[in-house]
Design goal:
The protein is an all-alpha fold. It contains eleven helices and no strands. It has two domains: 61 residues, Arc Repressor Mutant, subunit A (Orthogonal Bundle); 124 residues, Orthogonal Bundle (Tetracycline Repressor, domain 2).
C-alpha cells in the first residue's frame, strides 16, 4: 500500500522553507561571527548580509544565540564527517589529512568563529556543554576513530592511551584559535603528530599506573 506524500512544513506565511536560504543565512552568521565576534553580531546584521527578511529571521531564530548554535552545527557538519574519515594507510597520514584545511583563509575564518562561540559560552555558562560538543567533541571523536583503527592494524600498541592522545591536537588548535587568535600551521601540525602524538601513543603503555 502506497503511503501518501507529506509536504514539508510551511512557514507561518505558508511558504515552504528554502534549504538554500537557510545555508546562506548560516554562512553569513559564521562570516560575521568571525569578523565582529559574538558581541558585535546581531540577527539584523545577519539578515542584511544574507539579504534575508528580518521577520523571517526572527521567526526561524528567536534569539541570536539560537542562530549561532545552528551556524556552529552547520560549520561542524562541513568540517568533519565521521563516516568518511581519511584512510591513507597510516595513522600519521590520516591525522595530517584530517587536520589540514582546504586553505588558510578558511582555517582563519573557522578559528575566529570558534573564538566568537567561546565568548558566547562565557556569557551563558549553561551553553557550555552544547558549545563544547559543537566545537571540540567531533574532532576528538575523529582522532579516536583513527587511532583505534591504527591499533587494530597493529600500527600502535593495543594498550595505547588513545583517550588522552586524541585530545592533543584539538586542544592545541583550540588554544591557538581562542587564546592566541592564530591558526595552526602545517609545520606545527606535522611537529605535533611526529614529536608528541605518535610518541605518546607508543610511550603511554610503558606507564600503565599513570592512565
Amino acid at each position: 500500500m502506497l503511503m501518501p506524500e507529506i509536504d514539508p512544513p510551511l512557514s507561518p506565511r505558508g511558504r515552504k522553507r528554502d534549504p538554500d536560504r537557510d545555508i546562506a543565512i548560516l554562512e553569513a552568521t559564521i562570516d560575521l561571527l568571525a569578523e565582529v565576534g559574538y558581541d558585535g553580531l546581531s540577527t539584523a546584521k545577519v539578515a542584511d548580509r544574507a539579504l534575508a527578511g528580518k521577520g523571517t529571521m526572527y521567526r526561524r531564530w528567536p534569539t541570536k544565540t539560537d542562530l549561532v548554535l545552528d551556524a556552529v552545527a552547520h560549520m561542524k557538519a562541513q568540517q568533519i564527517d565521521l563516516e568518511a574519515l581519511p584512510d591513507t594507510g597510516s595513522l600519521r597520514g590520516d591525522l595530517l589529512a584530517l587536520f589540514q584545511p582546504s586553505d588558510s583563509a578558511q582555517l582563519d575564518r573557522t578559528s575566529r568563529a570558534m573564538a566568537g562561540v567561546v565568548s558566547m559560552i562565557s556569557q551563558m555558562p549553561g551553553l557550555a556543554e552544547t558549545g563544547d560538543y559543537s566545537i571540540f567533541a567531533p574532532w576528538i571523536a575523529a582522532n579516536t576513530i583513527l587511532m583505534e583503527r591504527a591499533a587494530k592494524r597493529g600500527e600502535i600498541p593495543a594498550a595505547a592511551d588513545i583517550a588522552l592522545a586524541a585530545q592533543i591536537i584539538p586542544s592545541m588548535a583550540a588554544y591557538r584559535a581562542l587564546i592566541l587568535r592564530v591558526a595552526i600551521e602545517k609545520d606545527l601540525l606535522v611537529r605535533l603528530v611526529d614529536q608528541i602524538v605518535l610518541p605518546a601513543l607508543h610511550e603511554s603503555t610503558a606507564h600503565p599506573s599513570r592512565r
